[in-house]
Amino acid sequence: MTAVIEANGLGKRYGHKWALSECTLAIPDGKVVGLVGPNGAGKTTLLHLSVGLLQPSAGSISVLGGRPGTTATQLARVGFVAQDTPTRAGFSIADHLRFGRWMNPNFDAKLAEERIESLGLDLRQKAGKLSGGQRAQLALTLAMAKRPELLVLDEPVASLDPLARREFLQGVIAVVADSGTSVILSSHLVADLERVCDYLVVVVNSRVQVAGEIDELLASHHRLTGPRHERAALPRDQQLVNESHTDRQSTIVVRTNDPILDPAWTVEQLDLEDLVLAYMTGAAAQDRRPKLGVHS
Amino acid sequence: MIRLALREFRTEGIVGFALLIALGVLLLVTGIHVVNVNDAFQIACRKAHSCSSTPNPVLTVENPLQHALPLIAMVAPALIGIFIGAPLIAREVETGIFRLSWTQSVTLRRWLAVKLGVVGLASMVIGGLLMWMVDWWLSPIDAVNMNRFGLSSFGYHGVAPIGYAAFAFALGATAGALLRRTVPAMGATLAGFVGARLAVTYWIRPNFASPLYETVPLPINEGGVSFAPGATEAFSPPGVSVSNGWVYSTEAVNKAGHAPTAHYLLNACPAFFNQAPQPPPTGRKSTAGNTGVTLFNNCVDKLSRTIHTLVAYQPGSRFWPFQWAEMGVFLAAAVALCGLTYWWLRRQYA
């Protein structure tokens, strides 16, 4: 199995600030990847690097084995729907499809027209007059009619109402079912991704916190509750994700593939939302730790 | 991709060519009138043998338009830069559409090359057609004034305006890429274009070729020469006009080629300078001024034996080489700006 996206020490800097740093990833082929993280975490930066809208400041990235955005062939292999699904307000839907045809030699005009029709959209309508959901659908139509091997969607549902959100995600599922295209989509809400994704990447504070198959992630993460523990007491095979303590009780989230043997812990399974949350709060705590950890 | 560039240029293109056609109709109708007035005058004055003494009425015909036209011709390239050049990339970035445009199966290099090529060419066509119409309209008037090589009128004649249009367009595109917002890019385009035009007019154009020098005698008539004794440049001869040429300077020089000093002038005409420090009033001659006039004429007469007027100028025959050179300068700058835009976008985005 080849990697759809392979990143090695990838980083992007704006002035002195790193929007993404030390990102090392290998996302396998044929997945629907959810890229989750709070706003400003670096999701868009990572996606722009993968479609060639940005060049890395450090490290390297290869998409479908090639350098993003460098050649027309490479561009044709990746479909992209940008955040807020930009479209030309003055162009009609038909104009947009024509744009797609002129700009992409492999453009499947029939597929695009059928999809627009099945969505109940009028070809003559101006893109500026479409609702957010309709615009997102138009953008998705353009991207999928390229017949890409990888579809990259940047926060495609963030601005949509729940109904449009569901319709859009159903559209994505249909693309995957029809063509087997790999998909990577970002969101700051896990709930959006839970239904469609089978692979998860969590980005917080410009760093990739965790990446892996959702099933594996769920199986290997546990929430342990017990009397107050010190961190040092954890066995080596258990990787601490997040901890919270009251005077008498500790709750920690650990990642391990081995069974938890310490009888003092009550072990619980995590759902996807808890898991992402544990990484987000864990990363936030890590940021504060150096200042507090002087005495240890 | 070419079709896309044309499609995206449609609105600006339609507006541009519509304005051009509207102006064209206006110029055709009034221009025929100008030609007729001129023809009628030429026939009449030839019969009366008074062509050189009678003022040609063509200089006052269609007066408001005659004065507005040079302005329109000089402003047009700036408008092309502002309304066609500046939004080309700025709007793309500002609205986020670039994320759609630059992720299709067309590389940034090709996208930019086609956009700049197609729209830039259209800008040059608009600029060129406008200039061609204005040139035709003004030709009977130019034939009388013979000043198309002049500092400002050079800029609304010939082929140089095609270079201006290309440059203004490229400047707008570059400003848009650098500033990322349409309105500031428009402002920068205007400022940059005006600056470039002035810089070329005053610093670069005079150096396209060394001027020719010619000495002519001082005109021996009152009023033509002015004195200001005591000042460094004490003595200035009247301007000399060269038909269809461009006069850089006229200065008074002695036989050694130097400007006469105030001391020399004072010595040459003590009577005049002691009595009347100002040149006498021209035109009306009062009895009180008569002595002054006589003294002045005597003085000039005396000076003209040793002092001549030195004229530095470009002859009319150099008009077209200068036009091509000016166009070349602006075209080269436009190409450089396109390169800068590509380099910048490449660095920023893909």
The oligomeric state is heterodimer
Structural class of chain A: alpha/beta
Low-confidence stretches of chain A: 290-296
Specify the helix fraction band of chain A. Answer: 25-40%
Helix count of chain A, per DSSP?
A: 9
Q: What overall geometry of chain A do the principal axes of the alpha carbons give? A: elongated
How large, in whole angstroms, is the Cα Rg of chain A?
21 Å
* Strand content range of chain B: 5-15%
**Total domains of chain A, how many?**
2
Percent helix of chain B:
55-70%
Report the portion of residues of chain A in β strands.
25-35%
Number of strands of chain A: 13
CATH architecture of the largest domain in chain A: 3-Layer(aba) Sandwich
**Which stretches of chain B of 5+ consecutive residues score pLDDT under 50?**
283-288
The number of domains of chain B is 2
First-last Cα distance of chain A: 45 Å
